[in-house]
Design brief:
By secondary structure, the protein is of the alpha/beta class. It has eight helices and nine strands. A seven-stranded parallel β-sheet has the order 3-2-1-4-5-6-7, sandwiched between helices. A two-stranded antiparallel ribbon has the order 8-9. Strand 8 and strand 9 form a beta hairpin. The C terminus is likely disordered.
Length: 371
């Protein structure tokens, strides 16, 4: 039985020793060393014989997820950069130690052809892809503001964090059958962006949107798409991209950064059959930082512009109305109160005009009640 522990002091808390590494960073020099679940994660067969592809699996969250998937019974193909070979070998060892196949592949997901070759390799090795985890990411702190973000850096961040995810999802689909799933790595930065990580935060916000849109597209094929939004996590990316790591994670309500091992269970859950009713969801693992709900309060039901039905719409006998933009999304949901103008709009009607007269006038002109 696992011992119950106080989460605040379960893992090391700041201040940490000063440390700096060149990008992409390595696990070995980190102080304290990251915990990937080597001595703590116990599997229970939740992913038996699944075939998983994980980008950025050599260290950090990727390694913790690879280890957890393997101990749950999955074979794992994961990517790494050439400079991360030593870390990749350790991840492979942990997967094989769990009795599962490990297939480390050197791959830079910034290039479309590399992504194509990666998917083809997974198809050859496994015959199918059951779980795709888009975890590879690049960030570089720029405390001097947007002027310090070069076009080269901006392009690298977007190509690593977004283009690679897009290409892999698109190319993996022919190899995914009903019951498969995609899990993307978002971030607290999607909701609470740090100015010095402007470009990185931009991509994480896009990942949230991409995840929710793709989920609606693929559920008819029986494929779920979700994301995990970690808060500060102690990985090699931190000393390699931030100028000061001494107080890293201290701002979280829990008072410390997460260890990679604390992220892995969320990925396991989303990949498992227990999560069969969960799609288009963002699992926030932020150490207590409250984040807004990432979904919409209502989902459009394939109706033409101006005729969007919402549960509780006055047309349907309820108190809530909404206005649908040309793009199909609800821009507001609010109670339809007298004098507030048409539902979902901030523009008031002419002061003093009776509500009944306004409604009659709208019907006369043929305007839909929620248009």
């Amino acid at each position: 039985m696992t011992e119950q522990q106080n989460p605040v002091d379960r893992h090391p808390t700041p201040d940490f020793p000063a440390q700096d590494q060149p990008h992409p960073g390595w696990t070995g020099p980190m102080d304290p060393p990251p915990d990937h679940g080597e001595d703590s994660y116990r599997g229970s067969g939740r992913l038996t014989d699944r075939k998983a592809v994980i980008t950025g699996g050599d260290s950090g969250i990727g390694r913790a997820v690879a280890l957890a998937f393997a101990r749950e019974g999955a074979d794992v193909l994961f990517t790494y950069l050439d400079s991360e070979k030593d870390d990749a070998q350790e991840t492979a060892r942990l997967v094989e130690e769990a009795g599962r196949r490990a297939v480390p592949v050197s791959c830079d997901v910034r290039e479309e052809e590399n992504c194509r070759a990666l998917v083809e390799r997974a198809a050859r090795e496994f015959g199918r892809i059951d779980i795709l985890v888009n975890n590879a990411a690049y960030q570089m702190s720029q405390p001097d503001g947007i002027e310090a973000i070069s076009t080269e850096q901006f392009d690298r961040v977007l190509r690593t964090n977004l283009y690679g995810m897009f290409w892999l999802c698109k190319m993996a689909l022919p190899h995914m059958r009903e019951g498969a799933c995609v899990i993307n790595s978002a971030s607290v930065q999607a909701y609470k962006p740090s100015p010095h990580l402007l470009d990185y935060a931009t991509t994480k916000g896009a990942i949230v949107t991409f995840t929710q849109g793709l989920a609606q597209m693929l559920i008819e094929r029986g494929i779920r798409v979700n994301a995990v939004a970690p808060g500060p996590v102690w990985t090699p990316l931190i000393p390699a991209t931030l100028p000061d790591t001494a107080e890293f994670g201290k701002q979280a309500p829990i008072g410390r950064p997460a260890q990679p091992s604390e992220m892995a269970p969320a990925y396991v859950f989303l990949a498992s059959q227990e999560a069969s009713y969960i799609t288009a969801e963002i699992v926030n693992a932020t150490g207590g930082t409250p984040l807004p709900y990432a979904g919409r309060a209502a989902v459009r039901q394939n109706r033409p512009h101006g005729h969007c039905r919402i549960p509780g719409n006055p047309r349907e006998g309820g108190p809530v109305a909404g206005r649908c933009r040309g793009g199909g999304g609800y821009d507001r949901l609010r109670p339809a109160l007298p004098g507030m103008g048409r539902a979902g709009s901030a523009r008031p009607h002419r002061r003093g005009a009776p509500v009944g007269r306004r409604l009659r006038r709208r019907r006369t002109h043929g305007a839909p009640a929620d248009g």
